[in-house]
Design brief:
By secondary structure, this protein is an alpha/beta fold. The protein contains 18 helices and 13 strands. Helices cover about 45% and strands about 15% of the residues. Helix 8 packs across helix 14, helix 10 crosses helix 14 and helix 12 crosses helix 13. The chain is globular and about 65 Å long.
């Protein structure tokens, strides 16, 4: 079993909060991690709300929850019982102690809205990303495999690239045809599949709702925005917002969109292996999205993530700020990366405390003016200065 970096943080917070909400996409490993953590709690109770029998057990939530006040209660796929949140609030208030509830959910938007209404101050939130390079890559070869197959455990650990590709294609269809309707999404699976594939072709580009709507046969701006919200809420797509500052320049304010898991991106684009990927025009945007996910998963909770671009072309792929320090990351798919004049101008515009170029390299090396070229394995150390 692959150890998850977030495990120690989850244990630590369960020893402080009455409840924790662990968010993550379907099949990302939430249940495995929760079972590992719950094993250290005596007589933990487990409910999977996709099982009718477990759902029936909680049909009278006040009775069930009161009966298990002295144990950790793990509730998997908690978004299937949205009315449960109000009962959890009353139960936490009735006996407020750490480690009462661990809630697992696969839809961040609706779940966070439900929880914030009734559980504010009572629970903490963590998101489990697909497997990270720090968890599953030990050298450049294994890093390439992780990038190609993505971080879903069953995809990464498949016996070969073909089976990994088949698993990801099946996952996409199951997600669209079974999972989304369970979340209450009433959009034809084929329509959303086409929209998702369009986003894959536009990896890392600004989200143009009108253009995508026309490509979908005349869908409105609001409709394509709703489709994007659905994929963002289910943690399949990242909407990267601009980092806005007052520099007296015309800034690009349209968010960029990325398919979050590189393996799903490649499956949506029918790219089955590294040879085809490295010969594809998507190779640069794919690497960029992969690195952005490594940065996002390593961020301190207080930090924000965005990008910087002016109308004149001055650009920084990723800007990370915690209010007192600001870091910049430029992402290049090259073992000997070079940067443009716009990169240096962005450093001055943003008044960065440090800037890095992230590339597929085995060892870091310096550029001029204090900028360092780092590999993916150097991201955590770079962010530790925040």
């Amino acid at each position: 079993m692959i150890s998850r970096l977030i495990a120690s943080k989850l244990r630590e917070r369960l020893n402080f909060y009455p409840g924790m909400v662990l968010l993550g996409a379907r099949q990302v490993g939430k249940t495995t991690l929760a079972r590992e953590v719950a094993a250290s709690f005596p007589d933990a109770e487990w409910l999977d709300l996709e099982r009718p029998l477990d759902l029936a057990q909680i049909s009278e939530p006040e009775v069930f929850l009161a009966r298990h006040r002295d144990h950790l209660v793990v509730i998997d796929e908690v978004q299937n019982a949205p009315d449960l949140f109000a009962y959890l609030r009353h139960e936490i208030d009735a006996k407020r102690r750490p480690g009462r509830f661990l809630l697992l959910g696969s839809a961040s938007g609706p779940l966070l809205r439900q929880g914030s209404e009734s559980l504010a101050g009572r629970v903490g939130y963590l998101e489990l990303a697909p497997l990270l390079a720090a968890e599953a890559a030990t050298d450049l070869m294994s890093l390439q495999t992780l990038w190609m197959r993505g971080g879903f455990p069953l995809s990464l650990l498949a016996p070969n690239d073909e089976m990994s590709h088949v698993w990801r294609q099946d996952f996409i269809l199951t997600f669209l045809r079974r999972d989304l309707p369970q979340f209450g999404v009433n959009v034809a699976a084929e329509t959303l599949h086409r929209f998702w594939r369009m986003l894959a072709h536009l990896q890392g580009q600004p989200f143009n709702a009108s253009m995508l709507g026309q490509s979908l046969g005349g869908a409105s701006h609001a409709t394509t925005g709703r489709y994007l919200d659905t994929l963002v809420d289910t943690m399949m797509v990242r909407r990267l917002e601009p980092h806005l500052i007052n520099v007296g320049k015309r800034l690009v304010k349209t968010p960029r969109v990325y398919v979050r898991d590189s393996g799903l991106l490649h499956a949506l684009l029918a790219i089955p292996d590294l040879d085809m990927l490295q010969g594809s025009p998507i190779v640069g945007p794919s690497w960029e999205g992969f690195v952005i996910e490594q940065i996002a998963a390593t961020l301190p909770q207080s930090a924000s993530l965005g990008f910087y671009r002016t109308a004149a072309g001055t650009e920084m792929d990723v800007v990370v700020s915690n209010g007192t320090r600001t870091l910049g990351f430029e992402i290049k798919f090259s073992s000997a990366p070079t940067v443009t004049k716009g990169f240096w101008v962005a450093i001055d515009d943003l008044k960065l405390d440090a800037a890095y170029v992230v590339a597929p390299i085995a060892r870091p090396f310096p550029m001029k003016n204090g900028v360092e070229v780092i590999g993916v394995d150097g991201i955590a150390q770079a962010l530790s200065s925040l």
